[in-house]
Each structure stands twice: as C-alpha cells, then as structure tokens.
Amino acid sequence: MVDYAIASENLTKIYRGKGFSVTAVDHVNLKIKRGEFYGLLGPNGAGKTTFTKMLATLLIPDEGEAWVDGYSILKEPVEVRKRIGWMMGETGGRALYWRLSGYDNLVFFGMLQNVPKDIAEKRIRVLLKFLELEDAADKLVLEYSTGMRIKLMLIRALLHNPDILILDEPTLGLDVESAIKVRNFLRRLTDELGKTILFTSHNMYEVEQLCDRIAIINKGKIIFEGTPREIREKVEELKVVEIDVISSDSEINDILRKLEAASVVKKILSYERTKNYYKIRVTVEDHYVAIPEIARILKDNKVESISRSLPTLEEAFLKIAGVKIEETSRRIWRRGGHG
Amino acid sequence: MSFEEFKETLADEEKIHGLYGFLRKAWASWFYQMKIYVSYRMNLALDIIDIVLSALIYYYVGFLVSTDDLVKLGYTPDYVAFALSGIALSRYLWTTIARLAHKMRHEISAGTFESLAAIDSDNFKSWITGQVFYGSTWSSSTFILTILVGYMLGAKFTRNPFVWVQAIFIVILVIAIHAAIGVMAAGMYIIHKQLETLLVLMISVMEFFGGVIYPLAILWNYPILYYIALLMPFTHGLELFRRTIIDEKPLTDPKILTHLGALCAFAPLIYIGLRVYEYYLMKAKRLGLLSSY
Amino acid sequence: MTVDEILTLFKESPTDTKVSNVRKVIAAMLRRAKIRFNYKTWMIFDFANTLFMVFTYFLLSFIILPEDIAKAGYGYSYFDFALVGIAISHFITASLRSLALTIRLEQFYGTLESVLSTPTDFVILFMGDLLYYFFYSLIFLIIILPTGIILGSKIVINIWTVLTMLTLITLLVIANLPIGILSAGMVLKFKQGDPIGWALTWINQFFGGTFFPIIILPSFLRFMSLGLPLTYSLDAIRYSLIWGVTLLHERILYDSIVLIIYALIGYPIAIKIFRYIYNSARKEGKIGIY
Fewer Cβ atoms within 10 A, N terminus or C terminus of chain C? Predict the structure, then answer.
C-alpha cells in the first residue's frame, strides 16, 4: 500500500440510528497512484463524502482500512492529516469562522497545518490574488458570497502545500468562470507539481474533463472504475432524444402513450413540466431514424423541438451499472454528510 | 397531493383574515416557539434547576439578613419572600424589553425576517403578537415556578386569591409597559443596530435600581441613586407587587396609590411604542434594510 | 497573478515546516478573542451585570448580620465575603464551561471537522480558548476588586496576597477543569447547547458558597459542598484576601492540597471518558453535526 497515494481495502461505514442502519460506504477498494487526478462520481447520498471523511480521519470505519501516502488512517491519523489538504464543498457546511476575516481564517488554519506565519502570508497573498479575493481579505467571512467562501476553503486546503488533495465537490457553487479557472489550476497542480487529487463530484462532464481515472459510486458501492474514455464509450451507446412539446396536463398522457407505442422509441426515460412545455426524454436505437419518425407521430401536437441530447448522469448510471440510482433519503444526508 | 389540491389549500389560507386570522397566526407563531422550546427537554430541565437553585441561594442568604433592619426599612421580616418576589418579577425584564429585538436579529441574520415582513403587515403583526405572548408565557412560567418554590421554602406570600387578582393586574401592567419599551426598541433596532447594547444595559440598570434583592430604602443613603430609581417603571412595579403579595395592601392604600400613579404615568408608552415601531418598520422597508446584516 | 507564479512559489517553498505548540495556543487564543469581540453587546452586558452585582451586594450588605460570616472564619464584613465570590465567578465559569463552549461553538460554526482534519491536536484549541477566558476573567478581577475597595471593602491587597490569589486561581482552574472536560464530552455526545455547563455554574455557585458561607447549609447539603473543588478554592482565596495571609498559612495549604488531589484524580478519569466519547462520535459520524 506504500506505493499508492491513497489506497483503501474493504473500507466500510455503517450509520446506525434508532430503528435504521445504512451502509454508506460498502467494502470499497480503491487504489490511487501518486500524481493521479482521480474522480469519485456519484449522486447525492452515494457515500462520496463519507468516504473522503474517513480518509481525512474524521470518521472511523466499521470495517476495512485505508492508507494515505502509506500511512494508516487508523493507526497514524496525525501523519495522514499532515499530508492531506481536505476541503469540504458548499454542501459541507461552513467550515470557516464566519466572524473572522478571510485573511485571519487562513493564517489561523495555516498555523494548525504547521505553516509559519511568514510563509503562510506569502502563499495567501498569491492565492487570494489568483482567485480574485484580495479585496475581500479583510472582510468577515459572514459577508462573503457562497462562491467566495468556497474559494477561501480551497486556499485553506492548499496552504500547507500538501502532496495529496481531497476535494469534496470543490466547484459546486462557483460561478462558471471561476469553476473553469479552478479546474485548470487543479489540473496543473497534478501535471506540474505531481500532486495527487481525489476529487468528488456529481457532474459527469467535469470529472470526465479533468480526471485520469474515475470511479462511480452508488449506494456506497463502487459500480464502475476506469478512464474517462471507457466511460464515454459506454455512454455513447446511449442515444437520447429530447422532445419539447406544449401540452396541457391532460394531453400529456396521450402523447406519452403515442411515444410508447412507437417502434423507434426504446424507452421513455423521463418527462417533466417546465415553464411553457413538457420535456420528454427517450432512448432510441438510431437517432437519425428516430427524430423524423417522432416528429411524424407527434405532428398533431405542438412540438417545440426534437433534438439529440447528452445523457444525464442518472441515465449514464442506468446504462453503466444496469441499476437505477437512488438518491438516499434526507435523513441519511443529515446523519452522514452529503455524498 | 396533486397540484390542484395544493392550490385548494392555498385558497383555504386566503380565508384566514380579519381578527380571526390575526389571532390564528399569532397562535401559530406562539405554538411553534413553544414546541421548539419543549423539544429541548434537557434545556427545560436545566431551566427548572436554574430557577430552583437561584431561589435556594436567596433562601440561604436570608439566614444572614438582619430581620430587624428589614422591618426598620418598612418590610416584613421575611427576606425570602422579599427576594423571591423581586426575582420572580425581574424574570419579565429580559423577555419584555430585549427579547423581541434579539429574536429579530436572529430572523434577520437567518434571512427569514424579510419574507416575514414582506408578505403582509397583518402577518407581521401576528408574528410580533405571538412572540410577545410567547415571551410572556415563558417568563410567566418562571415567575410562577419561582413563587411556588417560595411557598415551599416558607415565604409568606399572600394566600388570599383576591389579593392575587390585584397582584396579577399589577403584573399585567408591568408587562404591558415594559413590552411597549421592547416593541419600540425592536423597531428602532432595525435601523440602529447598536441599540441592542443599550437595551441589555437597560435591563441591568432596571434590575439594579429596582431593588430586586435589597430594600429600595437603602438607596436613601445616596439620594441621587434613589431618585434615579424612581424614574424607572420597574421600580414602581416591583414595590407595588411586593406590597401586594407580602403586605396584602389594597389599591387604595396611599403608598400603593403613589406607586400605581407613577407606574400609570408610563402607560402612554404603550401607544408611543407601537407608533414608533410602525414608523421604523416603514422606514426600513423604504430603505430596504430588512435583510441587510 | 498567473498560475505559473503560484506553481513556482509552491514548488520552491518547503513542505515540512513546523509551528511550535505555544504559537498555536496563542493563535487559538487570539482567534477566540477576535470572534468574541464581534459580540460586543454581550461583553458590555457581562461587564455591566457584574458591576451591578457588586453594587447590589454592597447595598445588601447593609442589612446583613456578619455573625455567620465570622463563625465561618471570614472576618466581619458580608460585602468582603461576597465581593471575592463575585470577583472570581468568571474563573469558575471559565474552568467549567470554556471547553464545552469550544466544542459547541466549533460545531455551531461548522469548523469542528475543519480543525480536526489538521495535524494539530484539538487540545491546542482547548488551551487557547481556556487562556482567552482566563485573561477575560482576569480583566473582571482587575476591575471588580478595586471597585469593591472604593466602596469600602477591607480586603488585604499587597504583593503577597495578589501572588497567593493568582496561584490559587490557577489551582482553581486546574482543579475544576476535569469537570469542564466532562461537560465538553457531554456536549459532544448530546449536542444540546451547553446547558450542562450552565447548570454546573449554578450548582457550583450554590454549593461552593459564592453568596453565603456553607456552614449555614444543613449537613446533607454541606456534605455535597465539601465534594466540590470550588468550595476549597473559594475558601482559600477568601481567607487569604480577608486576613492577608499567604499560601503558607495552614488553612490555605490544606485547601491547596485538596485541590491538587482533585486534579490528580480528576484528569485521568475525565480525559479517559472524553476520549471515549470523542472516539465513539468519530465512529458514529456525529462530530461536526449541529
């Protein structure tokens, strides 16, 4: 296990409460190489956060073991903490002192991470400037926007220059421009400084863009592990067509029945009402054949558009794992974190 | 539930208007506060311990008090009754004066205040009413518990129900006047955030000058302090309350009448308080300050 | 600022830096001070309340007979007696509640996990907070005792009694802290605010005899009093300030030894229980949840 940046063996976490028990992480075996950008992908409640919290030594597993930079999370937690930069994203709560300034927060956490003030100051200055927070540095975190807080948490995780970064949904809640900036920056951290990054997300396209390898986790189990290319190949077989149609609540059943009966439609994935129309998603064998055929079937309805669409994470899951993903209940979210 | 059914429930909601609607919403606001409080059972238990222990402290301090001096200063020799009546009434100070502003600060920082004030002013008034009633309920429970503990410790409070009716009348008067200060302060607080400090200071000052655990007459040694004490409604309220439940003095007693007159002189505050509150709320809505924190 | 510059900075700067624990404790203390300073209202309230308490007990002392005070060995002035009790009441609160408050506040801010994910032991944070509350209480002491003297208190203040007082206060905090640690454990376990610490303060004020000498308690209550370290701390500090005697006086020496015994027995038990609760919270995943 010494050869890996992060390795887990049968790592298991069960949350128990009055009258319920939920296996949040279920015998997870992962091996992440040094200098690898590794994505952990899964819906809310899949066990992502629980997994990262165990690696950050905040949670003791019920079964199994994990090693970070060769150190056991059970036997050498302090050594593990020295080597990781851990960041819990937007959904992870506050994680900063709201009644201290952004700058004070960073200096303080820097100290806890064994970074002397002079070194910390230099790093804080450049990182604040890079993430365009320098003007807000002396303001209380209370006055920050969500995006600003996330940037601050990211700086906090980087401050002690750790070799391993465990980032739990770091881009969730950032504006598009900042998210791109942060992604590029993180990618260069692995490419040029050889940092290992474990990155969780429920955004498939983000993970696909960034990561060297990806694991998909659902209900605590790893259901797929591979390169982005392997995932894309699997998902590309999934041909989705999206139909926007103006319809009343009573007409929609009729439309769905027509689609169900059509030979070109393999399956109705979902339908939902948006502001002006219904959005129906279906899988097809061949969209070149299916799109004109669907247009013909619905010629009497007010069809706004029919187009090929990229599969959503949920749909890709269905394809990859062959099982429907389930968002775990809120109760578990509250007990065990969020992912 | 279908969307149509949901819409119907909204229509139900619209039917709640007028005085009935107002009271119903006030009741809801009161009820949910109460529910939250009671759900923290440990807090409840510890509040009770707090009340019992503070009563016990003065019970034992009472052993040290010179009853002769107490009598000389015009009270009965029963120090436990003296102190516990003061402590019981002072329980209203925080809830009437500062609680509303404090509660508003929470709602403002949680971002829920704006929606509360925005929906309609009727809703908002119910909220305030509910909150004031909740504060009074809480204080009244601690008040009653303190008095009961007093009885158990042998404090010679009156056992005449008619005298208690008079005492309750006085308590209500004290609550109304102090709540008026609280409502006024809460209004001003929306714009002048630093007011909270002044508010909490006011409570300390009133509690001190009211003579909660020492006889007011001692202040005669320092006449300026004595006159300052007379400027506060709480001082008069407490004297009235004590004279009623310990000495069983009727309202017609000249000493009682003086304090009652002095307390009633503060009654216009009830009207002024509400007006000031409305003025500041309107001003805050114009300036858009309800969510700024 | 380009990414290149950042990468160069990180590439060149050392990764295995060290910060001494003393520095960390001071940083933790300053962090608490800065946060508390945002709540000026409560600080002012606290100061006003305590000062008015001094005035109140000053006035109350006019009608109090000093016989029981004298019988308990504390001289002839009830005001002196109460003044010392009020002056050190913040230290009592600090020792009993500061740790529980640390946990409570870190949970409330959501920073508990953030802090626990660093290699720094949580004890450092405890120490920092404790130090903050210690200095905060010291300010009260420095204000209250002179106020009392202006109002006519005859307590003896000289270099020896002050040194004795500071030593005894330190002993008070040390001996009471195990109860504070247990209280912090309870907060971690039950997550119900800090009511236990609050109640403990009341219980201590009652049984420790902040406002009346414990000799007037009936024997079963006095028995409980003698079980609390605070009783001995208060006795020693009062005795020293009222009679102007130092640590070498036999009564104070006796109290101090009792306090040291409390500490020797208390810490291993308290720390063991706290560690147990902390580890089970880590197992159940309940550390940071508010």
Answer: C
Among A97, A151, A198, which would you mutate to test the C interface (most chain C Cβ atoms within 10 Å of its Cβ)? A97
Distance in angstroms (rounded) separating the CA atoms of residues B102 and B108:
10
What is the domain partition of chain C in residue ranges? 20-284
Task: Please state at what angle helix B79-93 crosses helix B161-191, rounded to 10 degrees.
Answer: 40
Residue with tokens 């247990």: C182
Top-level CATH class of A4-225? alpha beta
Q: Closest CB to C203: pick one of B53, B208, B221.
A: B53
Each residue's pLDDT, cut to its tens digit, for chain C (290 residues) gives 577 888 888 877 766 788 899 999 999 999 999 988 888 878 888 898 899 999 999 999 999 988 888 888 898 899 999 999 999 988 988 888 888 888 888 877 778 888 888 888 888 988 999 999 999 999 999 999 999 999 999 999 999 999 999 999 999 999 999 988 988 888 888 766 566 666 777 788 888 888 899 888 999 989 989 988 999 999 999 999 999 999 899 999 999 999 999 999 999 999 999 989 888 887 776 655 44
The ranges assigned to domains in chain A are 4-225, 239-310
B221 touches chain C (CB under 8 A): yes
ipTM of this complex = 0.84
Give the angle subtended at the CA of C61 by the CAs of B218 and C211, to the nearest 5°: 135
Query: Around Cβ C208, how many Cβ atoms within 10 Å?
Result: 23
B274: its two tokens: 């509400």
Q: Which fold has domain A239-310?
A: Alpha-Beta Plaits (3.30.70)
Tell whether C70 lies on the interface with B, counting CB pairs under 8 A: no
Contacts 24+ apart (CB under 8 A), B131-134: B131/B29, B131/B30, B131/B33, B131/B99, B131/B100, B131/B103, B132/B96, B132/B100, B132/B179, B132/B182, B132/B183, B133/B26, B133/B30, B134/B29, B134/B30, B134/B33, B134/B34
Distances (CA, A) of A224 to A219, A230, A315: 13, 10, 14
